[in-house]
Amino acid sequence: MAVVMMGFMALVSAQKPFAGTIKFHTHIEGTDDPNITSQGESDYSVQIFGNYTKTVRSIQEGFGITSITNGDAKNAVVILDIMGMGKYYIETPAEKIQEKMKNLNCTYDHTGEKKNIAGYECEKVNVTVTDMETDESESAVAYVSTAINSGADINFQQFPKLNGYPMRIEQKQDIDGTEVTIIIEATEVLPSKKIKQVDFLMPADAQDIKTNPELMKMLGMGGDDEDED
Predict the structure, then answer these.
(1) pTM value?
(2) Percent of the chain residues past pLDDT 90, beyond the cut
C-alpha cells in the first residue's frame, strides 16, 4: 500500500502545473549606437500557471499594459491601466486568433543544442514563420524549457505547436538601416504556490475599450464611426 501511495503522489506531483513568476530582460546586440540600443532596453515579468500567462509591462509613468493569455481556451485579453482614466480591456476570442494564424506556417528545427538560462536547461530551436499568402518569411531562435511547460498550448499565440516555454528569443530586425538582434531572455525564475488560476481573471473594474471611442482613436483603433479591427 505504501508503495502504491508513493507512486500515486509522484504522479500527482508530476502533473501539477508550474506556477510562478519569470523576470525577463530585453536588449539589442549588433550595434554600439546608443540611439538604437536604448530603444530595446527594458524589463518585464510574466506570471505563469499551467497554460495561463500574465505579462505586466510599464510603458511610461501612469500607463501600464497587462496581457493575459489562456492556452486552454486559446483566447487573450490586453488590459490598459491609464492614470486618471481607469482600466480598459481589449479581448481577442479564440476564433479571431485562429483567423489571424490560419495563413501562417510555423516550422521548428530542434537543434539539440542546450543552454542553461536562469537555472533551467533549454533547447535551441530555429523558428521559421511563413506567410502563405505572400511567401514572406521571418526567422527567430527560441530556447525552450520543458520544465516550465512541456506542452504547446501555452505558445498558441506566438509559436503555435511548439513544445516547451521560450526562456530566450533572438530575432534580427532592421532599425534605422542597421541590422540588429533583439534578445529577450529570462533572468530569474521565482516558483510560487501562491499563484492560482484566479489570478488570471480580468479585473472587475476594467471596462470594454469599445465604451470609450475617444480612447480608441487615441490608440489608433478607430472609434466613433469605425469599429475595432
Answers:
(1) 0.86
(2) 78
DSSP string, the chain: -HHHHHHHHHHHHHHSPPEEEEEEEEEEES---HHHHGGG-EEEEEEEETTEEEEEEEEETTEEEEEEEETTTTEEEEEEEETTTEEEEEEE-HHHHHHHHTTEEEEEEEEEEEEEETTEEEEEEEEEEEETTT--EEEEEEEEETTT--SSGGGTTTSTT--SEEEEEEEEEEETTEEEEEEEEEEEEEE-TT--GGGGSPPTTEEEGGG-HHHHHHTTS--TT----
Closest among 210, 227, 225, 209 to 81, alpha carbons compared: 209
d(CA 218, CA 210): 13
For residues 3 and 175, the model is more confident at 175
Tens of pLDDT along 123-159? 999 999 999 999 999 999 999 999 999 999 999 999 9
In order of their start, the domains of the chain are 17-218 (2.50.20.10)
Q: Each residue of 42-51: pLDDT tens digit? A: 999 999 999 9
